[in-house]
Design goal:
heterodimer, A: 310 residues, mainly alpha, ABC transporter involved in vitamin B12 uptake, BtuC, 14 helices, B: 404 residues, 2 domains, 18 helices, 74% helix, 0% strand, elongated
C-alpha cells in the first residue's frame, strides 16, 4: 500500500466512489417516485449529447460535453412528455421510443463524422475506462501535499468532486421539498411547493450526475449506480433519512470493493490481467442488492407475511 | 441504377441481399411479439432482457474456447445469451414478487448489473489468448459485415418460429395484456403466460443480437408496436400492423445502409422505424395529432356557428370575429353583421332546436338521452320524429326571426 497504490489506485477509487454517491443520491428519489427508468433513458441519451457537443465545438472538453449531455437529457425528457401527451402512450413505451431513437442517432452521427482521431469511441462510452484515470506524477502518499504532483491529477477527479458536492448540496437544500413532493404530490402543491419543477430539477440533477460519472464508468453501468444502492437501501429501512445514508454507504462499498476486486481479484486466482473495474462495481452493487432482497429487514411489501416470503 | 434501388431490389450483392431479408424477417418477428409487451405496459422489460444477453455471449465464448472450439459459433453464442437473458427475466420477476421494490427498479437493477457482468467477462476474454480477435463487442451495436449464410438461416428460422409462436399464443396473451385478473379467473396461469410473452421477446432479442446489437434491439420491439397502435383499435390487427412496420423498417434500413458507406445497419433500421413512428403520430387517422387538431377545429366551428345563429335569433349583435367570418362564409350574414334571408331561416331553425331541447329536458326522464345535450347536437339526432312532434305541440307554432 505504498507509492504504487497512490499512483494507480487512489484516484480511480476516489472517482468511482464520488460517481457512485452522486448517482445514488438522486436515485433514492427516482426509485420512490417510480421513475427509476428515467435514469436508464438519461444514460442512453448521454452518448448523442456528447457526440453533438463534440461536433459543434470540435474539441473534447469537459464543459461543452457536460452541457451537451445535459441538453440531450432535457430534450429527451421533453420528447418523452410530448410522445406521452400527443400520442396517448404509456410512459414506459414513450421512453423506449425516445431514448433508443436518440441513441441510434448518436451512433449514426458518430460513425458519419470524423471522430476517429479523438478519444471518443462507442465502446468506451458504453463501458467506461476507470483504470486509465491514474495519477502519473504521484510517488507516494507525500504527493498529496505536493502542489506540483497535485496539479497533474486527472481532470476527472475535480470534475466529479464538484458534481458530487453539487448533488449533495442540492439534496440537503431541497430536502423538505423533495421529500414531500415525492411522497404526496397533492399535499406538496397545497403547501405551495412547485412539484413539477422539483421533479424536473431532480431529473436534471440525475442527468448531470450521469454525465459526470459517464467518464469513469460508462453510460450503461451508471444505471446500476442509480438504482442498486438506493434499492438495497430501500429494503433496509422505512425512514427516508436512513435510506439515503444506507444508499451512500452501499455506493461507497460498491465502488471501493468493486475496484479492488477488479484490480487485485484476478491476481488472487493466478490470472495476470485485471478485469473491468466499472463492470465489477456494478457486479458488487448487484450483489449487495441481492443480499438485501434476501435478508433486508424491510424487504417485504406490507401485507405479505413471512410465511409467504419463505 | 442508383445504389439505393440496386439494394432495394436485392441486386447489390449477396451479402446486402442476405442482410436485407434477415432484417425484414427480424423486424416482423420483433414487431409482432413486441406488441404484447407494449399492450401489457411492460415495454422496458425488453431493455433489461437485451442488456442481460451480454454476459451470456461472454460465457458462451469462454466455455466454447475452453472446450477447444473456436468460440465464435453464432449458434453457441446465441444459446449462451438466451440463458442469461432468461436468468435476468426470472430475477426481475423474483424481485418484484418477493420484495417491495417496484418493477422499474428491478428492471434497472438487472439491466445495469448484468451488463456489468458482461463487461467484466469481455475484459476477461480480452486477456485470453484466443480472445484478442473475438470481436464480441460487435454484439453491442450489431454488425452486418461478413454475415454468413448460416447466420441468415439462424435469423430466418428463429424469426419464423417466433412469429408462429406469437400467432399460437395470441389469445391468452391478449387476454392477460388487457385484464390479468379476468384471465386468472378464467383459469389461465397469468404468471406462466407472462413468462411465455417474455420468452418470445427474449427469443427476438437473441436473434437480433448479430444484426442490430443488444442496445438497439429494444427499439425494434417497442417502436413498431407503438406505431401500429395509431392505425387500429383492434388488438388482433395491431400484431400484424406492428409486424409489417417492423419488417418494413428492417428491410428499408438494411437497404439504406447498404447503399452508402458509414451507415451502420442497426441505427439506420431504428431511425427508419422512428420516422414511421413520427409520421403515424402526426398523420394517423383517429389517433394522430393532425386528426385531433382537425377534430378540435371542426368542433370549434360548430360551436361558433350555433352560438352565432342563436345570437341572430335573439337579435343580439355578434362581436366575435371568428363567428362572423364563419357565418359570412356560409352566406348567413353580410360582412357588416346583418343576417341574410338564409341566415334568418337558419337562426330560426337553431332557435327552435334549442327550445325543443329545453322542452325535452323538462319532460323527458331518460338522462341517457337528455344528457346528450351539449349545445351543438341537433335534436333530430337524438329523439324520434314522433317525440319531436310532441315537443312542438307543447311549444306552439314556429316564429320567424327579425319579424319580417
Amino acid at each position: 500500500m505504498g507509492a504504487e497504490f497512490v499512483q494507480f489506485s487512489l484516484t480511480p477509487i476516489l472517482i468511482g466512489t464520488l460517481a457512485a454517491i452522486a448517482c445514488a443520491l438522486p436515485g433514492n428519489f427516482l426509485i420512490l417516485r417510480r421513475q427509476a427508468l428515467i435514469g436508464d433513458a438519461i444514460s442512453h441519451v448521454v452518448l448523442p449529447g456528447i457526440v453533438v457537443a463534440f461536433l459543434l465545438t470540435g474539441v473534447v472538453a469537459a464543459i461543452p460535453m457536460l452541457l451537451g449531455a445535459a441538453g440531450a437529457a432535457v430534450v429527451a425528457v421533453i420528447l418523452i412528455e410530448a410522445v406521452k401527451r400527443l400520442g396517448g402512450i404509456e410512459p414506459g413505451a414513450a421512453m423506449g421510443v425516445v431514448f433508443t431513437t436518440m441513441f441510434a442517432a448518436g451512433v449514426l452521427i458518430l460513425e458519419q463524422s470524423d471522430t476517429s482521431r479523438v478519444h471518443l469511441d462507442v465502446e468506451h462510452a458504453l463501458m467506461g475506462n476507470l483504470e486509465s484515470l491514474i495519477w502519473f506524477r504521484a510517488d507516494g502518499w507525500g504527493s498529496l501535499l505536493d502542489p506540483v504532483a497535485l496539479a497533474s491529477l486527472p481532470d476527472e477527479l475535480p470534475r466529479i468532486a464538484i458534481v458530487c458536492a453539487m448533488v449533495v448540496a442540492l439534496t440537503v437544500l431541497f430536502w423538505r421539498w423533495l421529500k414531500i413532493s415525492t411522497f404526496d404530490e397533492g399535499f406538496a402543491e397545497a403547501l405551495g411547493i412547485p412539484s413539477a419543477a422539483v421533479g424536473f430539477g431532480l431529473v436534471l440533477t440525475a442527468a448531470v450526475a450521469a454525465v459526470a460519472a459517464f467518464d469513469a464508468v460508462g453510460s450503461i453501468i451508471v444505471i446500476a449506480m442509480f438504482i442498486c444502492p438506493p434499492a438495497a437501501a430501500r429494503l433496509m429501512t422505512n425512514r427516508l433519512e436512513r435510506q439515503v445514508w444506507w444508499s451512500v454507504a452501499f455506493a461507497t462499498l460498491s465502488a471501493v470493493l468493486g475496484y479492488v476486486l477488479a484490480g487485485y481479484g484476478p491476481l488472487w486466482f493466478g490470472a495476470t490481467h485485471a478485469v473491468s473495474a466499472a463492470g465489477m462495481i456494478a457486479v458488487v452493487s448487484g450483489a449487495i442488492l441481492g443480499l438485501a432482497c434476501l435478508f433486508g429487514p424491510h424487504r417485504s411489501r406490507i401485507g405479505i407475511g413471512r410465511q409467504d416470503a419463505a | 441504377m442508383s445504389p439505393f434501388f440496386e439494394a432495394l431490389l436485392l441486386q447489390a450483392g449477396y451479402n446486402a441481399a442476405l442482410v436485407a431479408i434477415g432484417a425484414a424477417l427480424l423486424g416482423f418477428a420483433a414487431g409482432s411479439s413486441g406488441t404484447f409487451l407494449f399492450l401489457r405496459k411492460r415495454a422496458l422489460v425488453s431493455d433489461a432482457v437485451a442488456h442481460a444477453t451480454l454476459p451470456g455471449v461472454g460465457l458462451a465464448f469462454i466455455v466454447m474456447v475452453s472446450l477447444g472450439g473456436d468460440g465464435r459459433s453464432l449458434l453457441g453464442l446465441l444459446l449462451g445469451s438466451a440463458l442469461t437473458a432468461w436468468i435476468g427475466l426470472l430475477t426481475i420477476e423474483w424481485i418484484t414478487r418477493r420484495t417491495r421494490l417496484a418493477e422499474d427498479a428491478a428492471i434497472g437493477a438487472v439491466l445495469g448489473v448484468f451488463f456489468g457482468i458482461g463487461i467484466v467477462l469481455l475484459t476477461v476474454i480480452q486477456s485470453m489468448s484466443a480472445g484478442r480477435q473475438a470481436g464480441l463487442e460487435s454484439f453491442l451495436l450489431g454488425s452486418t459485415a461478413g454475415m454468413l449464410f448460416q447466420d441468415a438461416v439462424v435469423i430466418a428460422v428463429g424469426g419464423s418460429l417466433t412469429v408462429f409462436a406469437t400467432w399460437l399464443l395470441r389469445r391468452p396473451m391478449t387476454l392477460v395484456a388487457f385484464d390479468g385478473d379476468y384471465a386468472a379467473a378464467l383459469g389461465y396461469d397469468v404468471r406462466r403466460i407472462d413468462l411465455l410473452m417474455m420468452g418470445l421477446v427474449m427469443a427476438v432479442t437473441v436473434i437480433g443480437l448479430k444484426l442490430v446489437g443488444l442496445i438497439l434491439i429494444v427499439a425494434m420491439l417497442i417502436i413498431p408496436a407503438v406505431t401500429a397502435r395509431f392505425w387500429t383499435e383492434r388488438s388482433g390487427r395491431v400484431i400484424w400492423v406492428a409486424g409489417a412496420v417492423g419488417g418494413l423498417s428492417g428491410y428499408l434500413g438494411a437497404v439504406l445502409s447498404a447503399s452508402a458507406p458509414a451507415l451502420p445497419t442497426g441505427p439506420i433500421i431504428v431511425l427508419v422505424a422512428a420516422v414511421l413512428f413520427v409520421v403515424s403520430l402526426l398523420f394517423a387517422p383517429g389517433r394522430g395529432v393532425l386528426a385531433a387538431v382537425l377534430r378540435h377545429r371542426s368542433f370549434q366551428a360548430r360551436v361558433h356557428r350555433r352560438q352565432g345563429l342563436l345570437a341572430l335569433a335573439a337579435q343580439h349583435p355578434i362581436r366575435e370575429a371568428y363567428t362572423l367570418r364563419l357565418l359570412a362564409r356560409e352566406g348567413l350574414v353580410r360582412p357588416d353583421g346583418v343576417p341574410t334571408e338564409a341566415g334568418r331561416a337558419q337562426a330560426a331553425k337553431v332557435a327552435r332546436d334549442e327550445r325543443r331541447w329545453d322542452v325535452a329536458r323538462e319532460i323527458h326522464q331518460d338522462a341517457g338521452l337528455t344528457g346528450r345535450y351539449d349545445g351543438v347536437t341537433p335534436i333530430e339526432e337524438v329523439f324520434t320524429a314522433d317525440e319531436i312532434t310532441e315537443f312542438d305541440r307543447r311549444l306552439g307554432p314556429p316564429t320567424a326571426v327579425g319579424g319580417a
